[in-house]
């Protein structure tokens, strides 16, 4: 048992791998842990190097077989470093003809993609917290390396408003030229939106002015109609008053004429009565004279 423990300690010393249980207690800084990890990697580097060489040799064997297996045009599924799969056409006349030419294998080992993502988030977060302009230009990369649900959606929305994130890495156009084209397209789009907004404002402004003018004309027409109606009512009232006054004047004239007529008639009747009384008086006198004359004889 003692010999086995001694052999284990010897292997640990040779490999440079420190057992966490044998570490001195207390808080250990991140730099100390990183140093231990680098020491372990350096001690076991030849194992990873031999594995890398074997994988590269396997790749060369596959390169020799691929032109015979993929001899015709087809679409293959290609998996990238980030684990995303894309469909790619091969053996096309214009591009991606793997039946001609020579190819080589490049093998690289290191942390996995998920580990790189975590390290990227840990490194970018403090930088973007202190630099808002950097977050505006590369905020989609920060969220794209996060693993919580909805991170990809946030990254896509940030990328949609950032021309720098819309660069096609597989295009033959240099990234700098693509950025200039994207910025030019964004500028043209902004100008088009401004032009459309100006046209809409002009259109709605003209419609608003027309509606305002129509309302003013309608108001003027209503005022004119009301004024005409008032004047018509006043004219009707004046005509009615005039007619009433004329009728009243005519009635007064008729009454006065009748009164004068009655007065004249009354005067004539009085005169006739006086004449009758005078005639009767004279007749009485004549009768008395005639009666007195025979008696005198």
Please characterize this protein's 3D structure:
The protein has 297 residues and is mainly alpha-helical. It has a domain at 111-166. 73% of the residues lie in helices and 4% in strands. The chain has seven helices and two strands; from the N terminus they run H-H-H-E-E-H-H-H-H. Strands 1-2 form a two-stranded antiparallel sheet. Strand 1 and strand 2 form a beta hairpin.
Secondary structure layout:
Blueprint: H1 2-15, H2 30-43, H3 45-69, E1 74-79, E2 85-90, H4 113-130, H5 132-144, H6 151-160, H7 175-296
Antiparallel strand pairs: 1-2
Helix pairs in contact: 4-5, 5-6
Q: What is this structure, in a nutshell?
A:
The protein is 73% helix and 4% strand.
Largest sheet: 2 strands, antiparallel
Amount of beta strand: under 5%
SSE order, one letter for each helix or strand:
HHHEEHHHH
Overall geometry = rod-shaped
How many helix segments? 7
Mean pLDDT: 76
Total strands: the figure is 2
Return Rg in Å.
63 Å
How far the N terminus sits from the C terminus, by CA atoms, comes to 220 Å
Low-confidence stretches: none
Secondary-structure-based class equals mainly alpha
- The helix content, as a percent range, equals over 70%
Q: Order of strands side by side in the largest beta sheet? A: 1-2
């Amino acid at each position: 048992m003692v010999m086995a423990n001694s052999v284990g300690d010897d292997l640990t010393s040779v490999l440079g791998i420190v057992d966490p249980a044998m570490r001195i207690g207390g808080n250990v800084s991140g730099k100390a842990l990183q140093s231990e990890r680098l020491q372990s990697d350096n001690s076991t580097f030849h194992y990873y190097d031999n594995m890398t060489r074997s994988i590269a040799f396997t790749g060369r064997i596959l390169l020799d077989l691929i032109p015979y297996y993929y001899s015709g045009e087809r679409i293959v599924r290609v998996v990238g470093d980030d684990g995303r799969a894309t469909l790619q056409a091969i053996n096309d006349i214009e591009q991606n003809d793997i039946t001609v030419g020579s190819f080589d294998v490049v093998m690289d080992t290191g942390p996995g993609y998920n580990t790189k993502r975590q390290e990227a988030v840990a490194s970018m977060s403090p930088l973007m917290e202190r630099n808002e302009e950097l977050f505006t230009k590369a905020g989609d990369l920060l969220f794209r390396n996060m693993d919580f649900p909805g991170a990809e959606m946030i990254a896509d929305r940030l990328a949609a408003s950032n021309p720098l994130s819309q660069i096609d890495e597989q295009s033959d156009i240099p990234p700098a030229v693509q950025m200039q084209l994207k910025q030019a397209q964004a500028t043209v789009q902004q100008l088009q939106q401004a032009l459309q907004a100006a046209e809409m404002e002009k259109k709605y402004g003209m419609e608003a002015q027309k509606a305002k003018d129509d309302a003013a004309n309608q108001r003027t027409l209503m005022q004119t109609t009301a004024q005409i109606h008032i004047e018509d009512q006043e004219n009707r009232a004046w005509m009615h008053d005039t007619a009433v006054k004329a009728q009243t004047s005519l009635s007064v004239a008729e009454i006065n004429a009748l009164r004068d007529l009655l007065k004249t008639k009354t005067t004539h009747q009085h005169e006739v009565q006086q004449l009758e009384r005078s005639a009767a008086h004279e007749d009485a006198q004549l009768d008395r004279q005639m009666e007195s004359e025979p008696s005198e004889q």
